């Protein structure tokens, strides 16, 4: 469903910003509305408010923080994308939230943007999200379609997701087990419980894996193991 408004020949992408920090919301709004094709039509300070606001105003894109009161961003995303098929959600993330982004993608978000991205990156990512484009960015917005399909549990027709390839990576059997769980979106605690290891041990294994494959975050690792490429 196409809902972007058109005024004087300019297509406006309608946005809702959901974040519990008022100063961040207001600052981001000012930055985004400098772009002639972006229009912020509402703000929310918690997940429940974001869901109710989105139902009322039906934005094209919701910028959704992860950590919010009443209803967190992941839970809000899950119910929002079911209720509003034409609305896309981008998770707002800090680098320290990286392990929360994957559950956000599983909940139905199409990607994420790091909060300290530049104004130009924010605008570029929102435009690409609205148009359904995959973009390469240091801030990893829309994910590779294969990554989205795997994380969201989707299937391209009847074709199963391909098995992971560890060829030439020199990963130990334990590291391969951890990678298998990583691409399923498991948290450190869930991995630790399943493998009967301490969370700190899982964290150490992940850092070792990241160094071996030349990435710096969980999502970059997921992209690499599912697509064979590093985010640029």
Blueprint of the fold:
Layout: E1 5-7, E2 10-18, H1 22-32, E3 38-44, H2 47-57, E4 61-65, H3 73-83, E5 88-93, H4 98-107, E6 111-114, H5 119-131, H6 145-152, H7 173-182, H8 188-195, H9 199-213, H10 218-227
Parallel strand pairs: 2-3, 2-4, 4-5, 5-6
Antiparallel strand pairs: 1-2
Helix pairs in contact: 2-3, 3-4, 7-9, 8-9
Structure description:
The chain contains ten helices and six strands. By secondary structure, the protein is an alpha/beta fold. Strands 1, 2, 3, 4, 5 and 6 form a six-stranded mixed sheet that branches. The chain is elongated, with a radius of gyration of 18 Å. 37% of the residues are buried. About 3% of the residues have low confidence.
Largest sheet: 6 strands, mixed
Rounded average pLDDT: 80
User: What fraction of the residues are assigned to beta strands by DSSP?
Assistant: 5-15%
The total of helices stands at 10
Distance between the termini: 31 Å
CATH architecture of the largest domain: 3-Layer(aba) Sandwich
Oligomer type:
single chain
- Total strand segments: 6
CATH class of the largest domain: Alpha Beta
Could you give me the name of the CATH homologous superfamily of the largest domain? Response regulator
Q: Report the C-alpha radius of gyration, rounded.
A: 18 Å
Give the helices and strands as they follow along the chain.
EEHEHEHEHEHHHHHH
Count of discrete domains = 2
Shape: elongated
CATH fold assignment of the largest domain: Rossmann fold
What is the helix fraction of residues, given as a range?
A: 40-55%
Structural class: alpha/beta
Low-confidence segments:
154-161
